[in-house]
Amino acid sequence: APAGAAMRTEISTAAAVVTRLLRAGGGIGEEQLRCFRECLQEALREHYKHHWFPLAPSKGSGYRCIRINHKMDPLIGKAAGMIGLSHERLFQLLPSELTLWVDPFEVSYRIGEDGSICVLYESPQPGGKTTKPVESRTSCTEEWRIGRSSPSKNYSIMTVSS
Predict the structure, then answer these.
(1) In this structure, is residue 54 part of a structural domain?
(2) In this protein, which residues make up the domain named Anti-proliferative protein (predicted)?
């Protein structure tokens, strides 16, 4: 399969999480968000084209890493430019420290330099080898909500009836 097809799930997962963070920031229309997501997917596909190694998933990981660290990741910046979002606006909407790892078979992210790493997408590798020790990871759901000023009120308590 061409790399493009192989990368599709990983790339769409990565683009979706950045889009979701933008949506959570508020004030951007759905049409713009859709355009942003498509532009970002396109930019990632182009960027990763010759740097995708399913047989050695961690190879090139640094090159594929999407990073905001008080500097805007150029790929996010480029996609945002397509919908008229300035870097200043992006910094207001996105975490000031965000790292997103997009590797074959796994997409994960971390907010803050000391945050826990959240796995967004994981698929077994052909051949069944797992690449990374799993115990170093916390898998967390929607952890990016933490850090928003007001906690959401819809906590539901699961009750298990015997």
Answers:
(1) yes
(2) 94-113
Classify residue 160: in a domain, yes or no: no
Query: Whole-angstrom Cα distance, residue 101 to residue 153?
Result: 31
Query: How do the pLDDT tens digits run along the chain, 162 residues long?
Result: 455 567 999 999 999 999 999 999 999 999 999 999 999 999 999 999 999 999 999 999 999 999 999 899 999 999 999 999 999 999 999 998 999 999 999 999 999 988 899 999 999 877 655 544 443 344 444 444 443 333 333 444 455 555
**Residue 55 is part of which domain span?**
3-122
> How many domains is the chain built from?
1
Asked, for residue 128, whether it belongs to a domain, the answer is no
Q: Is 36 a domain residue? A: yes
CA 3, distance to chain mean position in Å, is: 19
- Residue showing tokens 């759905």: 30
Helix axes 74-82, 30-48, angle to 10 degrees: 140
